[in-house]
Amino acid sequence: MRDYVLIGDTTEDIAPEVVKTMDAKLLPFSYSINDEIFPFYMDERDGDIKDFYEKLRKGSMPVTSQINPDSYKSYFEEIVKEGKDILYLCFTSGLSGSIQSALIAADMINDKYPDARIEIIDSFSASVGGGILLYESDLKKKEGLGLDELKAWIEENRYKTRHWFMVEDLFHLKRGGRLSTVEAMIGSALKIKPILSVDEEGKLVVKSKARGTGKALDYLISRVDEEVSDFSKIHFNIGNADSLEKAEKIKEMLLERGAKEENIFISSIGPIIGTHVGPGMAAIAYVNL
After folding, report:
1. In which residue ranges of the chain is CATH 3.40.50.10170 found?
2. Which residue in 43, 163, 165, 221 has a CA-CA distance of 20 to 30 Å to 109?
């Protein structure tokens, strides 16, 4: 049986120190800001994430774009040349067309390397949700699951990934078409914090609205309370868009409920997702196994 490589991408936010424990590779997505293009790597070699959010606060308007087939082909081909197969857990098709580019690239490689196997799986997840699904998938691979077994496991358990997050600045959601200008203006004036999630099609949905940060964080944890019976058995991925204080508060609430400290990851929201949610966003994600 041929060896295979598990691949994710840098829309799947997870802390760099956690990435170092994983065997999975992370394919970099790119963003542009102030007319400069940067590939985003989890180790921040492209620039400090705090600097990115500071630019947003000062009015910079970054742009993201999906990966084209040629970029996918170059990345995949290097692995195929080593005689290895590929299992790629891709950014949700509900928010990006990148998966189509990946499928095109896989077809191009198969024309040249007919024995190569490249499996593309839609994660139906984003940001810390994608990150924790990739982490759990990596653990299963380390347990010895073959490509077919891991593919089946992901296809079943991707629907158990839970995403809950709040945003601070409504105008970033307005830019993305999630709120109208009037809603953004009124919500900001009233200090309304939208609570969002990702549905089973991998699309962003507004689930509720809370007045003030404290109530928003309480709402996030209340949704976890509804589903999780034993917090000690779950890996939690807490995301923050230069909002570490909120992430630490979420962690504190999880510990109070019996979560293990070593199973709680605090991850920065990278520029690919941060472009669309803005600074101040806080999130929690887990796979409800």
Report:
1. 4-158
2. 43
- What does the pLDDT read at residue 187? 46
- Tell me, what's the pLDDT at 212? 86
**Pairing between β-strand 36-39 and β-strand 30-33 as defined by DSSP bridges:** antiparallel
Q: Check pLDDT > 80 for residue 235.
A: yes
| Both tokens assigned to 207 | 């689930």
User: For residues 157 and 65, what is the distance between their CA atoms, to the nearest angstrom?
Assistant: 28
**8-state DSSP, 259:** -
Place of tokens 């991925």: 237
pLDDT in tens, 6-21: 999 999 999 999 999 9
- Cβ atoms 135, 20 nearer than 8 A: no
In this structure, CATH architecture of domain 4-158: 3-Layer(aba) Sandwich (3.40)
Rounded Cα gap, residues 155 and 162, in angstroms: 15
174 contacts 180 by C-beta, under 8 angstroms: yes
Task: Identify the pLDDT of residue 186.
Answer: 47
Q: What is the mean pLDDT of residues 59-86?
A: 94
In whole angstroms, what is the distance from residue 277 CA to residue 72 CA? 26
Pick the CATH number of 161-287 from 3.40.630.30, 3.40.190.10, 3.10.450.60, 3.30.1180.10: 3.30.1180.10
pLDDT in tens, 149-207: 999 999 999 999 999 999 886 666 656 554 555 444 444 545 678 888 998 999 888 88
The residues facing 119 across adjacent strands are 87
Q: Are strands 118-122 and 85-90 parallel, antiparallel or unpaired?
A: parallel
Which one, of 153, 114, 125, lies nearest residue 14 by Cα? 125
The sheet carrying 25-27 orders its strands as 25-27, 4-9, 85-90, 118-122
